[in-house]
Structures are given as structure tokens and as C-alpha cells.
Amino acid sequence: MNSTASLIRLVRRTRPSGLLLSTLFVVTLMSSLLGLLVPLQTKALLDKLSEAGAFTNEQALVLLSVLIGSAILAGVMTYIMGKIGNEQKRKLRADLFNHIIALPMSFFDNTRAGEPANRIVKDTEIIENLVSEQSVSFLSGVVSLLGSFIILWFLDWQMTMVMLGAVMVSFMLILPFSMRLTMLSKHLQDTEASLLGRLTELFSNIRLLRTQCAQEFEINHNNSQLNGLYHTAMKEHFLLATIGSLVNLVIMGSIVLVLGFGASRVASGVMTLGAFVAFIMFLLNIVLPMGQLSMVVAAFNKAKGAAIRINEILTTPLQIEEGVKLSLTNESIIVRELSFGYRDDKMIFDTLNCRFMAGKTTAIVGASGAGKSTLFALLQGFYQAKSGCIEVAGSNLNEIDKESLRSQVGYVAQDSPLLCATIYENLVYGAKQQPDPERLRQAIIDADLKHFIDTLPVGLDTQVGERGVTLSGGQRQRIALARALLKEPAVLLLDEATANLDAHTEAAIQLALHKAQAGRTTIIAAHRLSTVVDADNILVIQNGKVESQGKHDELMQSSEFYSQLISKQFGLKTNRDITVACS
Ligand SMILES: Nc1ncnc2c1ncn2[C@@H]1O[C@H](COP(=O)(O)OP(=O)(O)OP(=O)(O)O)[C@@H](O)[C@H]1O
User: Fold this and answer.
1) How far apart are alpha carbons 461 and 453 in whole angstroms?
2) Less Cβ around it within 10 Å: N or C end of the chain?
3) C-alpha–C-alpha distance, residues 551 and 571, integer Å
């Protein structure tokens, strides 16, 4: 879709109400017509003055009323355009937000964090600027320009031909620059979005920057991005300045021509003083909108760039989330012939078959990168399998309503993400209603959080900072665990949930987890020996398939890969070491 079509599509998508548009049409017309009356009334007044030495009170009153009426209507017009622009911006922002949060995970995997936010905030602002600010000048400019041309034609058609020629010349001169400006504006906005994305990512990983002593690298990288932006912005300004100068040249040339020609006519008595002044006023009605033309062209080009970027998002197909609503009963989750890769040329799972027994704990082990977290993502319906399927409660996961599925699945991720809010707000995030206080208390106890919360002066109302930065890794994990338990999930997915805990906390949380797992289908990406040893079943994943499965003791005997993995991951050499480590 080309850029103008993109912009038209967006404007139509957010079309204001018919009432607002017709009010705007009437007000614009009236305001511009009144604007045209000002020079005519001035002419009548001046002609009377030069004829009779004085003008009448009626004439003065009419001119004053026309001036005041024109000013009021211009104000109303600006207000209406502001309303239309802001309503469009609100609607576009809501549409964009609603669309973005429903996009497939692959979109977020391949997009910088700050970019969608940039489109929601900045690109919509650019469209709003075109509608609210520039279109007022443009609309009223077009009406007064056309009206003035017509009146001038009757006042002096020869001079009007000169004016028309000037307009055509300036338009032809501007056109190629304007096309180049569109391309530059899009490039500039893309680069700015990428800068914002990079800065957002950088500041949220400021500790990494310091630890890696990456200040110098980041300063250089930032400088080179800023230099790139500067050069593109300067090219844009060069074009704007060129367009502006060309327009000014044509305007000034026309004014000089008309003034010279008009003055000679007044001197020779062919033209009255009133007609000459009216001519100059009409001329201003033509040249002022033309002067603003470069601003309108720039805003229009910027808006076209923004519209392309907004449409890119709005036309990206959504992930299918609707489906059968089901209640997860006491049935196993079965993975059948599942093949999946983030990219088509690199499969993570290749006809994987396995079963997660209902009410039991299954540990998944495998080398780093084997696909444990990926399997969790698939189990929550974040990605679609390339072939094969996951069967949940007898239904294909693809056909299940994802919200109904996820509301019954508790997931504790490796990095336990938290929001910049209070502990309470983090715990109840996403809950449709306030949780029962007893249930909340129990989840807190089960996640071994109670003691920690009791030590805080404001307890659950404590702010955790950006991404939970004021908490330890273990505290963040326990909040994430409590949040998962609060859902009373039928299925519990724990992605190395005990990775950041000290020995004491780990022992306590293991106990809590044992309780939480009771009667629940629990799947753990296991990196802790005790988890592996306690599991009802262990799935050993290698090369995208289940290499072997069983209980720990059986696997130690039957799978060389498993026993090697265990000794590598936990630094244990013999069965005796393992028994000692688990005791
Ligand atoms: N969003 C993604 N886009 C593309 N590739 C990904 C994505 N997430 C993971 N991968 C790749 O998929 C593979 C499996 O990753 P995954 O995180 O599932 O492994 P894992 O077994 O959980 O590893 P670990 O034990 O180290 O956490 C890896 O090769 C990884 O690079």
C-alpha cells in the first residue's frame, strides 16, 4: 500500500461523526466567506472616504461585525479541528494498543521493546498534528484562496493570471522536493523509533552496562546513531528550507509585481485607492496560505510516514486466541508428533511425543537450549506448532480458548518478571476480581513469602521498583510463585523456579512446592537435583525428541545421556554422590 493510501485508510478508519464534519464544513465556509468580505467592505469604506471625505457609521459597523465574526469563526474552526484530531488520536492509540497486545509472540521476539510504544505515542501524535494544526490552515487557506482568485478575476483578470502563473510555478518547483521529503521523513521516523527502542532496552539493563564496562561502547554507539539522525534531519531541513525559500520567492515576486502594477494604475486614475487596497488584501489571502504550504507539505509527508508504520502494525494478522472454553479436569496433557522451530530452518522439536500425567509431577531435563522453556511457551499457546499437536483435556490446544487455558495454568518463569507496582498489585495482576483474603494469605504462606512481607513496614503495599529491582532474585521468584498459586491452577509450570534461592529458602520453598504440587499436574524445567529426584516422571530431551523417560533411579541405570547430564549439571560423579547430595 502506498503512503497516501495508508494515510487515507487511517483517516477513514478514525472518521469523525457526521455532525462534527458538517459543523466543521459550515463553520469553515462561513469563516472563509466572512474573510473574503473584509477586503470588499474595506474597499467600499475607502472609496466612500476618498469620494465624500467620510464613511458612514453603517459601513464602519458592518466592517467591524465582519472582522469580529470572522475572528470568532476562525477560533471555532480551530477548536473543532483540535477535537477531531484528538478524537482520532485517542481512537488510533486504542486501536493500536488493542492490536499490539494481541499480536503473536513472534512479533515481540523480533521487535525492540520501545518500538510499539513509539508507534502508539509518537506516530499518532504526528497524524494528530496534521489534522489539528495543519488542516485548519489548509482548509481555510483553500477556501480563501479560491474565493480571492474569483473576486480578483473580476477586479483585474490580467493581474490574476500573473498570480495563477506564480502558483503553478511554485507547485511544480515544490513537487520533486516534496516526494524526496516523504522518503526522508519515513527514514527519520524509523531511525528515531529504533533509537527509542535501543534506549529503552539499555536503561532497563543499566546494571549489565556497568558490569560489562560498556559505557564507552554505548557512548560511541549512541553518538553514531545521533550523528545518523542529525544528518537525516539536516537533509530534511535542507529540503524544507528549499521549499520554503522557493515559496517565499514566488510570494515576494508576486507581491512586488502586483504592488508595482497596482500603484501605477492608481496614479493614472484607472483604479481607485479602495480597489487597490482590496487587491492587496486579497493578495494576502492568497499568499499567506501559500506561505504555509511548506509547513502543510512537511506535516503531510511526516503523517504519510507515520501512517505506513501504523498500518504495518494494524495489518499484521492477530494470533487466534478464541476457541473452546474448557475446564482442565484430571486428564493428562499429551504431546503428539510435535514439531516446532522459531525459524523454519531450525527446529527445536522434531516429532516430539510425551505425556504429562494428570496430578503428577514431571521434570524435564536436557542440555541448555534443549527447548524446556520453549515447551512451556507451547503449552501456554504462545506459539503454534508447525505440525503435530498438544492435547489438553481431550482437545487440541490450538482449538482451545487461550484465556480459559491460561487462567487455569500457573506459570513461574525463569526471570520472574514483576511490574513497577506494589507487591499486592503484582500478586493480583490480571485477576478479574479481588482475591479472597484467605486465599491470598494461603498463597503467600505456600510461597514462603509471609515472613518476608511481615518484615516490611508497609507489607503488601511495598513498591518493588522497576521490574522488581528493589527485591532479591529469590524474593522476586517467591512473589511470582505466590502469583501463580493464587490462581489455584490445575496445571503448574515451573521454569527453574528455585534457581535463585539460598539453601534455607530453597528447602522451605521445596516444602511449599510439594504441597502446591499435590493433586496438580506439575511440569518443572528442572535444574535442581532434588526436583529431579522427587519427580514422578522425568523426560529427558535431546535433539528435539524424548531421549528417555522414567524415574531418576531407573534413568541412572538405563540412560547414559541422563547420567552424564546429571553428573555434568550437578558436578556429581557417582550414584553415591547423588544420594548424598539429595539426603
Ligand atoms: N523467542 C525466540 N526466538 C528464537 N529462538 C529462540 C527463542 N527462544 C529460544 N530460542 C532458541 O530456542 C532454543 C531453545 O531455547 P529454550 O529457552 O527453550 O531452551 P532451554 O532448554 O529452556 O534452555 P535453558 O536450560 O538454558 O534455559 C535455543 O536454541 C534458543 O536459542
Assistant:
1) 10
2) C
3) 20
CATH class for domain 409-488? Answer: alpha beta
Task: Identify whether the C-beta of residue 449 lies closer than 8 Å to the C-beta of residue 509.
Answer: no
Residue nearest to atom 23 of ligand 1 (CA): 369
pLDDT digits 0-9 by tens, 271-328: 788 888 888 888 887 777 776 766 787 788 788 888 888 888 999 988 878 888 888 7
Would the CATH topology of 320-408+489-501+519-551 be identical to that of 409-488? yes
ipTM above threshold 0.95: yes
Mean pLDDT, the chain, rounded, equals: 83
Residue 22, pLDDT > 70, answer yes
356 pLDDT more than 90: yes
Q: Which of 364, 373, 500 to mutate to test the pocket of ligand 1 (most atoms within 8 A of CB)?
A: 373
Select the more confidently predicted residue: 115 or 504: 115
51, exposed or middle or buried, with CB in 10 Å at 0-12, 13-18, 19+?
exposed
Each residue of 481-525: pLDDT tens digit?
899 988 888 899 988 654 556 666 667 667 767 777 777 899 998
What top-level class would CATH report for the domain 320-408+489-501+519-551? alpha beta
Among residues 493, 477, 479, the alpha carbon closest in space to that of 373 is found at 493
The catalytic residue positions are: 496
The count of residues in the chain is 583
Q: In what order do the strands lie in the sheet with 409-412?
A: 409-412, 491-495, 521-525, 361-366, 537-542, 545-550
Scanning 205-328, the segments in alpha helix (DSSP H) are 206-211, 215-267, 273-314
Query: Ligand 1 site: residues with CB under 6 angstroms?
Result: 109, 342, 348, 366, 368-374, 525
Testing ligand 1's pocket by substitution, the residue of 108, 342, 541 carrying the most ligand atoms inside 8 A of its CB is 342
- Phi–psi pair at 83, nearest 5 degrees: -65, -45
Which helix or strand (DSSP H or E) is residue 529 part of?
helix 529-534
What CATH code is assigned to 3-314?
Answer: 1.20.1560.10
